[in-house]
């Protein structure tokens, strides 16, 4: 890390401190230095208030609603809310569409993660093999993709692949092939957009990691006759393991939650909901069909899945001896 | 470490480099091929953005041409004019900016305090809190739209910009705290001791010494809060129901997009206007950003 150099200037001669400073030589006891016991909590208070009120409480509400009967009638106060127990979940798990959406979500997220990692890592290696100018060019292009808001990225990709006016179909000689009409081509289109806007993070992070690997290690491998792929697999990848874990988990989490791209590019989940993923599904259930309790139940399912991913992540971090 | 530009002066090829000059293993005959590939990929990656800006400047006839060409001989501002005149775009732009800046400033301050607490102090529950901050990043924002909607209704915040600020404040905090840790940690502890020896109070150290040192990192971290807030159209769509004067940019963009036959020129012009501020911000801070990510990843 290039830490900002402390610019405090030469330390002034210690001023005559009126207070006597005990120098017992014994290690300081309790919290470090002069910090009071409650200071950290004072600093944390605003964050905890915000997160408690605007994150934890809504999650609690989400869980609560998922156990209630909560439709338009209850929202407008026409009918009292009633407790339904796990009925919402039974209904959800009994719905074939839920399972197909879940499957689509998992497969789509997996494809996005693999694509992002493959492209990101490959380009990171490529970056180490070129001189400054091509590197800067690629880096800037990636930054542009990275910075593009999800919604404008979606509209631009839609336009690029537009059957009538887009350049891609013309370039590939596809005539007026509509990408959003078929289930798989629509998913493929969204996949490409997602990879486009999320590989830069992986590329930049992995590139930084490779630069930190001592050159001798790689040279030794080369002298032993290892090719590029072998060097990556046997030398770089193991050394970059902590970084790879982080970017993998981050990608899983982000790609599992993809919302804007699907919503905008497939117009809310595709023809007859063929491109729904859990996130969009929950939103449609709640706000399009006013089945708030079902939408909440789907939200809880997502939370549980992502919680599982988080636990795996923490375990891997611990195993690597990372300190939080 | 970012793409620290290796000193631009390139030694003549084949010349032995100074002892200790790094990465000799990178200099291979295949380098020219690699460089061509890099530039080619850069072109592909940048193409969508190029096409967006290009289409924004194309006259209407060329945008809706069956034979799109990657240039225009008669650039026009018509699309931009349409965007800015028809849809109260300026107002939406301002709303977006106000919401995003409010979230950025408030979350940066809160995150700075919290990150200081979890890196500079040892206390019970510290690790638990860190794990919670990490877990909080995983929460699918969209799933919380439902309870958030009811919460905003109960607060009487629906239809106001506040209903957009509050949720994003909550959602951007965990990641901001997580990222900032690295920056706070990077400030040497000796500095802290020196400050106390010099008689600085805790508050004084926090705001007059630590804060300026962490500020670059704080700005870099803000990019993420800025982007997520600037991007948002879900909350704008769900919470701003009747008061369209409080709508934000993504909604304006969707106005052009929603129709059966989208006004592509308008969409691209609006997209350009929406992308530009983020792009500028991003490129300006990317060095810090990368080192911050390295910190968040490695430390």
Task: Please render the helix and strand layout as text.
The complex is a heterodimer of chains A (324) and B (299).
Chain A: H1 39-66, E1 68-69, H2 72-75, E2 82-83, H3 87-93, H4 96-128, H5 132-147, H6 150-160, H7 167-172, H8 183-211, H9 215-223, H10 228-239, H11 241-256, H12 260-265, H13 278-288, H14 292-319
Antiparallel strand pairs in A: 1-2
Helix pairs in contact in A: 1-14, 3-14, 4-8, 4-11, 5-8, 6-8, 8-11, 11-14, 13-14
Chain B: H1 31-57, H2 60-63, H3 78-86, H4 89-120, H5 126-138, H6 145-155, H7 162-186, H8 189-197, H9 202-231, H10 234-239, H11 249-258, H12 264-298
Helix pairs in contact in B: 1-12, 3-12, 4-7, 4-9, 5-7, 7-9, 7-12, 9-12, 11-12
Overview of this protein structure:
The complex is a heterodimer of chains A (324) and B (299). Chain A has 324 residues and is an all-alpha fold. Chain A contains 14 helices and 2 strands, in the order H-E-H-E-H-H-H-H-H-H-H-H-H-H-H-H. In chain A, helix 6 (150-160) packs across helix 8. The two termini of chain A are 17 Å apart. Chain B starts with 30 loop residues before the first helix and ends with a helix. The model of chain B is unreliable at 1-22 (pLDDT under 50). The chains are: A mainly alpha (324), B mainly alpha (299). At the A-B interface, helix 1, helix 4, helix 5, helix 6 and helix 8 of A face helix 1, helix 4, helix 5, helix 6 and helix 7 of B.
The unreliable regions of chain B are 1-22
The major pleated sheet of chain B works out as:
none
Give me the CATH architecture of the largest domain in chain A, please. Answer: Orthogonal Bundle
**What's the overall geometry of chain A?**
globular
User: How many domains is the backbone of chain A divided into?
Assistant: 2
Give the beta-strand count of chain A: 2
Largest interface: A-B, 122 and 132 residues
Compute the separation of the termini of chain B in Å. 13 Å
CATH architecture of the largest domain in chain B: Orthogonal Bundle
Query: Which blocks of ≥5 consecutive residues of chain A have pLDDT under 50?
Result: 1-34
Count the E strands of chain B.
Answer: 0
The radius of gyration computed from the alpha-carbon positions of chain A, rounded to a whole number of angstroms, is 26 Å
Mean pLDDT of chain A: 84
Biggest β-sheet description of chain A: 2 strands, antiparallel
């Amino acid at each position: 890390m290039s830490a900002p150099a402390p610019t405090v200037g030469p330390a002034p001669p210690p001023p005559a401190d009126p207070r006597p400073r005990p120098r017992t030589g014994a290690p300081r006891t309790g919290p470090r230095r002069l910090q009071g016991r409650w200071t950290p909590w004072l600093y944390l208070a605003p964050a905890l208030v915000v997160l408690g009120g605007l994150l934890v409480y809504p999650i609690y509400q989400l869980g609560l609603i998922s156990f209630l009967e909560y439709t338009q009638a209850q929202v407008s106060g026409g009918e009292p809310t009633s407790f339904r127990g796990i009925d919402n979940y039974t209904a959800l798990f009994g719905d074939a569409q839920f399972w197909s959406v879940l499957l689509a979500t998992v497969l789509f997220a997996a494809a996005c993660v693999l694509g992002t990692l493959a492209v990101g890592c490959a380009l990171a290696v490529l970056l180490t093999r070129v001189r400054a100018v091509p590197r800067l060019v690629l880096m800037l292009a990636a930054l542009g993709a990275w910075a593009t808001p999800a919604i404008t990225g979606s509209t631009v990709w839609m336009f690029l692949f537009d059957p009538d006016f887009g350049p891609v179909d013309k370039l590939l000689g596809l005539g007026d092939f509509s990408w959003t009409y078929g289930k798989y081509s629509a998913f493929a289109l969204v996949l490409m957009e997602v990879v486009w806007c999320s590989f830069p993070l992986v590329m930049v992070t992995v590139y930084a990691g490779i630069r930190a690997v001592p050159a001798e290690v790689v040279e030794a491998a080369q002298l032993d006759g290892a090719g590029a792929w072998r060097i990556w697999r046997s030398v770089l990848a193991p050394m970059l393991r902590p970084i790879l874990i982080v970017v993998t988990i981050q990608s899983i989490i982000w790609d599992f939650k993809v919302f804007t791209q699907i919503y905008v590019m497939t117009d809310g989940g595709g023809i007859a909901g063929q491109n729904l993923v859990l996130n969009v599904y929950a939103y449609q259930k709640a706000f399009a069909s006013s089945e708030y309790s079902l939408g909440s139940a789907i939200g809880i399912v997502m939370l549980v899945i992502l919680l599982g991913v988080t636990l795996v992540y923490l375990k891997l971090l611990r195993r690597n001896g990372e300190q939080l | 470490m970012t793409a620290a530009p290796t000193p631009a002066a390139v030694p003549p090829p084949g010349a032995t480099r100074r002892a200790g000059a790094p990465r000799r293993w990178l200099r291979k005959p295949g380098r020219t091929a690699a460089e061509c590939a890099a530039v080619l990929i850069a072109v592909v990656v940048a193409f969508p953005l190029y096409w967006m800006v290009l289409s924004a400047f194309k006259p209407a006839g060329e945008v809706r041409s069956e034979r799109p060409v990657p240039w225009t001989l008669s650039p026009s501002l018509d699309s931009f004019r349409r965007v800015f005149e028809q849809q109260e775009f300026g107002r939406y732009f301002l709303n977006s900016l106000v919401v995003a800046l409010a979230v950025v400033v408030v979350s940066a301050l809160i995150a700075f305090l919290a990150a200081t607490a979890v890196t500079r102090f040892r206390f019970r529950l510290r690790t638990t809190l860190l794990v919670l901050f990490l877990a909080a990043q995983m929460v699918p924002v969209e799933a919380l739209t439902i309870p958030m909607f009811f919460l905003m209704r109960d607060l009487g915040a629906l239809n106001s910009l506040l209903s957009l600020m509050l949720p994003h404040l909550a959602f951007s905090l965990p990641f901001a705290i997580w990222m900032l840790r690295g920056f706070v940690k990077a400030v040497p502890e000796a500095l802290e001791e020196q400050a106390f020896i010099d008689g600085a109070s805790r508050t004084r150290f926090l705001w007059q010494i630590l804060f300026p040192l962490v500020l670059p990192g704080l700005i870099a971290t803000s990019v993420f809060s800025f982007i997520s807030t600037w991007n948002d159209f879900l909350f704008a769509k769900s919470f701003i129901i009747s008061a369209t004067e409080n709508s934000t940019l993504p909604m304006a963009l969707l106005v052009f997009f929603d129709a059966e036959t989208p006004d592509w020129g308008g969409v691209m012009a609006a997209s350009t206007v929406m992308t530009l501020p983020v792009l500028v911000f991003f490129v300006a801070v990317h060095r810090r950003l990368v080192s911050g990510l390295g910190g968040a990843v490695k430390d």
